């Protein structure tokens, strides 16, 4: 779920986005919790009276949102797809051996992308925290009965299976350096994320709509590549996770759809605001203790393998524009209409700039990057 290049909508240039770590790598390796200089960020940008919007939507959320969660008894669990540890040891070993044979032909690049996706899923505490920063929908007690809080906890519980399953599968494959992978997860959860959602649920739900679709696209592509590479079980795993993400996308997009219905201009401005800022990817602060540009390098591999590309970013935007009927929205204020024009005209501009960036990239010499996750083997970028 990563973009190699991001669109700067202000000056309309594609520039490699260097997500600087908050601390220089050397310092990070000494202490992952030292205070970072605070960035000036807007907070609590939703006027307090708008919290009433979310209060008034509680009935709607109970009836329309919560049924989009699956009852736990009907859910798959990581164990559904993994070797059965309760079997006699020889049979268990046979299942592990079969798993290793299936993954044997998958290329190193594939594992870089799968590890990056797994690490992104594993930083789940950060995402639950992020949703609970949102005014009017946060879980006030930790076990609040508000439908917003109920949704967030159950969504987290569904998501929690994704990282667990990918992590165990990768562990059993023997193809990755688990110590480095786990170190990256620890750094990432310690670093957090800042999607620029300003404690504002309008912005927050635009972000999650986009992001769930991005993960759907990414896991769908790792499923396709696993199938082509000879591992139908891994293909089913990634495909099953992608199906969860799709359901989550539909739920979050439904919230934004409802906001557009009851507060058209407010919701349109929120969509525009997030697209102006660009959708930052949840794992943009990843670090393995070694490569200060790990996220950019991982993104470049994902882009090259077609797992998540700048074109996908434009596709997601277009899909959401269509789902929300943004081109046909009526009753907007002047400011709302300007936001509508900006958002509805953005995808073709992104594509054009991406084409130019690709032209420039073709002229550059390929260079090798070592990934600690695959025992410092080099990948050509
Ligand atoms: Fe997920
Ligand atoms: Fe999801």
The number of domains is 1
Bound molecules: fe (ii) ion
Total number of β-strand segments?
4
Binned, the helix content reads 55-70%
Structural class: mainly alpha
Entry summary:
This protein is mostly helical and 381 residues long. 59% of the residues lie in helices and 4% in strands.
Describe the structure.
With 381 residues, the protein is mainly alpha-helical. The protein has one domain (66-380): Ribonucleotide Reductase, subunit A. The protein is built from 15 helices and four strands. It has helices at residues 25-30, 51-56, 58-65, 89-103, 108-122, 124-131, 147-173, 178-191, 201-228, 232-262, 264-277, 294-304, 310-323, 334-344, 346-362, and strands at residues 5-8, 13-16, 368-371, 377-380. The protein has a two-stranded antiparallel ribbon with strand order 1-2. Strands 3-4 form a two-stranded antiparallel ribbon. Strand 3 (368-371) and strand 4 (377-380) form a beta hairpin. Helix 7 (147-173) runs antiparallel to helix 10 and helix 9 packs across helix 13 (310-323). The radius of gyration is 21 Å and the shape is globular. The chain starts with a strand and ends with a strand. The model is unreliable at 1-37 (pLDDT under 50). One fe (ii) ion binds at residues 121, 159, 162, 215, 245.
Outline the fold blueprint.
Layout: E1 5-8, E2 13-16, H1 25-30, H2 51-56, H3 58-65, H4 89-103, H5 108-122, H6 124-131, H7 147-173, H8 178-191, H9 201-228, H10 232-262, H11 264-277, H12 294-304, H13 310-323, H14 334-344, H15 346-362, E3 368-371, E4 377-380
Helix pairs in contact: 5-7, 5-8, 5-9, 5-12, 6-7, 7-10, 9-10, 9-11, 9-13, 10-11, 11-14, 13-15
This protein binds fe (ii) ion (FE2) (2 copies).
Main location: plastid
GO molecular function: metal ion binding; stearoyl-[ACP] desaturase activity
EC number: 1.14.19.2
């Amino acid at each position: 779920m990563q973009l190699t290049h991001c669109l700067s909508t202000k000056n309309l240039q594609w520039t490699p986005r260097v997500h600087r770590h908050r601390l220089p790598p050397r310092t990070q390796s000494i202490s992952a919790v030292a205070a970072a200089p605070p960035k000036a960020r807007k907070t609590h940008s939703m006027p307090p009276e708008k919290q009433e919007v979310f209060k008034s939507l509680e009935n709607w959320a109970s009836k329309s949102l919560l049924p989009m969660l699956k009852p736990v008894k009907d859910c798959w669990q990581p164990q559904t797809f993994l070797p059965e540890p309760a079997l006699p040891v020889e049979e268990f070993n046979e299942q592990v051996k079969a798993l290793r044979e299936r993954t044997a032909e998958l290329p190193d690049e594939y594992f870089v992308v799968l590890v990056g996706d797994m690490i992104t899923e594993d930083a789940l505490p950060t995402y639950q925290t992020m949703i609970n920063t949102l005014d009017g929908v946060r879980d006030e007690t930790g076990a609040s009965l508000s439908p917003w809080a109920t949704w967030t906890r159950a969504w987290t519980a569904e998501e929690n299976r994704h990282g667990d399953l990918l992590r165990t599968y990768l562990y059993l494959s023997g193809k990755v350096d688990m110590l480095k992978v786990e170190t990256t997860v620890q750094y990432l959860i310690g670093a957090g994320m800042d999607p620029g959602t300003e404690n504002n649920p309008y912005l927050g739900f635009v972000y999650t709509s986009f992001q769930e679709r991005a993960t759907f696209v990414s896991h769908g592509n790792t499923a396709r590549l696993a199938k082509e590479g000879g591992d139908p079980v891994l293909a089913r795993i990634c495909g099953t996770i992608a199906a969860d993400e799709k359901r989550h996308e539909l739920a979050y997009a439904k919230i934004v759809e409802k906001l557009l219905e009851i507060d058209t201009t407010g919701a349109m401005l929120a969509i525009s605001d997030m697209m102006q800022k660009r959708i930052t990817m949840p794992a943009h602060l990843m670090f393995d203790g070694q490569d200060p540009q790990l996220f950019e390098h991982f993104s470049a591999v994902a882009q090259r393998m077609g797992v998540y590309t700048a074109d996908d970013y434009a596709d997601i935007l277009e899909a959401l524009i269509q789902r929300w009927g943004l081109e046909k929205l009526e009753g907007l204020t002047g400011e709302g209409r300007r936001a509508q024009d900006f958002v509805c005209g953005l995808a073709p501009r992104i594509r054009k700039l991406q084409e130019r960036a690709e032209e420039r990239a073709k002229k550059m010499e390929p260079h090798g990057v070592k990934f600690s996750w695959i025992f410092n083997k080099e990948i050509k970028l």
